[in-house]
Amino acid sequence: MTKLANRIIVDDNICNGKPILNGKRITVQSILEFLASGDSKEDILKQFPSLEPGDIEACLSFAATLLDRQYIIKQQTV
């Protein structure tokens, strides 16, 4: 298990190794997808009663941290 952020971990044995909220088996990707589809933080908290507002903030912060890197797009050769 690797702790990536205050509330986010990666464990190869849980959710196929995707980043999850610690102790909740809810992926960061799931939370981000709910937000992207228009669900409010309050909607998500109602759907997942075990979540705390800080969990959603941690997912957003985690995503922002991933995007704060330089990316190089390479052409694929056929």
Q: Explain this structure to me?
A:
Strands 1-2-3 form a three-stranded antiparallel beta sheet. The chain has a domain at 2-52: Winged helix-like DNA-binding domain superfamily/Winged helix DNA-binding domain (Arc Repressor Mutant, subunit A). It has three helices and three strands; from the N terminus they run E-E-E-H-H-H. With 78 residues, it is mostly helical.
Strand order of the largest sheet: 1-2-3
CATH class of one domain: Mainly Alpha
Strand-residue proportion: 5-15%
CATH architecture level-2 label of one domain: Orthogonal Bundle
Tally of alpha and pi helices: 3
Averaging pLDDT over every residue, what do you get? 92
Q: Tell me the series of helices and strands, N- to C-terminal.
A: EEEHHH
Flag low-confidence runs: none
How many strands, what sense, and barrel or not for the largest sheet? 3 strands, antiparallel
**Radius of gyration from the CA trace?**
14 Å
**Number of E-type strands:** 3
